[in-house]
Design a protein that fits this description.
By secondary structure, this protein is an alpha+beta fold. Among the domains are: about 140 residues, no CATH class; about 220 residues, no CATH class. Helix content is about 40%, strand content about 15%. Strand 15 and strand 16 form a beta hairpin. Helix 9 packs across helix 11, helix 14 packs parallel to helix 16 and helix 15 runs antiparallel to helix 16. The chain is globular. The two termini are about 30 Å apart.
């Protein structure tokens, strides 16, 4: 969801027959993090994304507006403390890591000795300036000054920052001052009980200069990996030109082609528990070494991973520092790349069983097609999942079988497969639908459930926007519609190509309704 921050300027009298009541006369609506999205031709030329603040004049009544600004009161506030969160987040990861034995330093990944990356190249002041000015100006509580101010005075501090970065790269040492994170607990859903620790997820913030140093390393390390084809080509996460949409397109197209060839298919969506937080450093460094990374480059990465800590900020208090012995740093620049490297050898385990796969970060989709009367399907799935589970165990990752989803796409709509997969004490049964990277997939690949879910959320957003439409300018309405409606219509909509017109008609109706709201037309007027 995209947040809408609304600030009221109240206390001004207005009187137009409404009892001379004191009502707010203007509203400043600030929309942040608007995506760069394609929109319908009807709205595209009217939507302005460069101006993110619009002042609108209130009309004749504030009753509807107030009802939106004053939602039902939240549940009673909890008595949780910052230290409670710090201990909970630490123990959650430690509980998973303690299940595993001493790691094996050998990994299945093999490469040639021709690939070598032993040191980082120093950066010029121009390079550092580009890194500073091109970064998003997010500020961490650990930063000495706000990031936007640092960027404003960057010309004065670039020489010093360049010296710090190059000294770190040359010595193979990541500064200790950059190893601490500040974590803020975030309630996963507003409807959840705020008194329960498990209902919160940690949001980690790192110092801006630390992330700038990471970007310098990321650029050089990723270039080496890409040039030598060392990254998994079936990993769409954290890659330029790749997205959740490309990952889903790759899989759904393969399933559709199999169905066109009168074959059934199985799609398995693996679920990992706290995958980024349980990465074993010893195994990761061993994998990096086998990829040809050595010398001060490997030494720097070892320093980057070790002796990290975090503190939790909660309601004005800060917890005691907690040490991190596993995982890649959350909220970091290098963390996603290192995790992709860590997962590289999983692909060979999957392919050994004749399965195809595609990953997006820690979300793994594996699939294969078969003749409808093939009696070996259950055995093949069981064998593949068993080997995957063993690989996960060797790499200190926990495969959550209770949340792992199984979809069976039949060769034709009238055919049904009835089987279940037993793995240890867990039983995996086929589902009719499953949420995959934010898209609701169904076993017939009709996407009717996804369309229904999308239209339902869009209708709710349009309903709320229409209630306050009399108080909004056209431009403000355009921004709201883009953020809350069109963004949902656009998400992974390439998956819907080729569907019958009757299937996607609800989406067109939503777009028509959005246009009517923007142009303030009556509900039933055709457009």
């Amino acid at each position: 969801m995209y947040s809408v921050n609304i600030a009221l300027n109240s206390g001004l009298q207005r009187g137009n027959g409404l009892n001379q009541e004191t009502l707010p006369t203007s509203v400043c609506i600030s929309l942040s993090s608007l995506p760069s999205l394609q929109t319908s031709s009807l709205l595209k030329h009217h939507i302005t994304t460069t101006r993110l603040t619009t002042v609108v004049t209130l009309g004749h009544s504030s009753k509807t507006f107030s009802s939106l600004l004053n939602p039902p009161p939240p549940p009673p506030q909890s008595t949780l403390t910052a230290d409670d969160f710090a201990v909970f987040f630490t123990n959650k990861t430690r509980t998973i890591s303690d299940q595993f034995s001493t790691p094996q330093t050998e990994d299945n990944f093999t490469t040639t000795n021709a690939h070598s990356f032993s040191s980082f190249s120093p950066l010029s002041e121009t390079d550092v300036s580009k890194l500073i000015l091109s970064s998003h100006p997010t500020t961490c509580p650990l930063d000495p000054i706000p990031t936007h101010l640092l960027q404003a005075i960057s010309s004065s501090v670039i020489p010093s920052l360049t010296h710090i970065i190059n000294s770190s790269l040359h010595s193979g040492t990541f500064p200790s001052a950059f190893k601490q994170a500040r974590v803020s607990p975030l309630l996963k859903k507003p409807s959840l009980n705020p008194a329960l620790l498990e209902n919160y997820r940690p949001v980690s913030l790192l110092p801006f200069i630390a992330k700038t140093l990471e970007r310098a390393v990321f650029n050089q390390l990723s270039m080496f990996l890409v040039q030598n084809n060392l990254l998994d080509s079936n990993q769409s996460g954290f890659k330029s030109g790749h997205s959740t949409e490309t990952a889903l397109l790759s899989v759904t197209e393969a399933l559709r082609l199999a169905r066109a060839a009168s074959k059934s298919s199985v799609l398995i969506l693996l679920d990992l528990s706290a995958a980024f937080d349980t990465v074993n450093h010893q195994i990761l460094l061993s994998t990096l070494r086998k990829m040809g990374i050595s010398g001060t480059a490997l030494q720097w990465l070892n320093s980057y991973l070790s002796d990290r800590s975090f503190m939790v900020s909660w309601r004005g208090e800060v917890s005691k520092s907690q040490q991190l012995s596993t995982g890649v740093p959350q909220g970091s620049v290098l963390g996603p790349l290192l995790f992709s490297i860590y997962m590289t050898s999983l692909g060979s385990v999957i392919q050994k069983h004749g399965f195809s796969y595609h990953c997006y970060a820690d979300d793994t989709q594996l699939y294969f097609s078969f003749q409808p009367d093939d009696p070996t399907v259950v055995a093949r799935i069981s064998a593949c999942l068993s080997d995957i589970s063993s690989w996960m165990n060797d790499h200190h990752l926990q495969l959550n079988l209770t949340k792992t989803e199984l979809l069976v796409v039949p060769a034709n709509p009238s055919f049904h497969h009835n089987f279940s997969i037993q793995l240890g004490s867990s039983t995996i049964t086929p589902s009719r639908t499953a949420r995959n990277l934010g898209v609701v997939m169904d076993h017939q690949l009709s996407f009717t459930d996804h369309i229904a879910t999308t239209t339902r959320s869009c209708r709710f957003a349009l309903y709320n926007i229409r209630k306050i439409r009399p108080f909004l300018s056209e431009q403000a309405t355009q921004l709201l519609v883009q953020a809350l409606v069109l963004s949902r219509l656009d998400y992974c909509n390439a998956l819907l190509a080729g569907l019958p017109a009757c299937t996607i008609k609800p989406l067109q109706l939503i777009q028509n309704a959005a246009a009517r709201v923007v142009f303030n037309e009556p509900k039933k007027q055709l457009m």
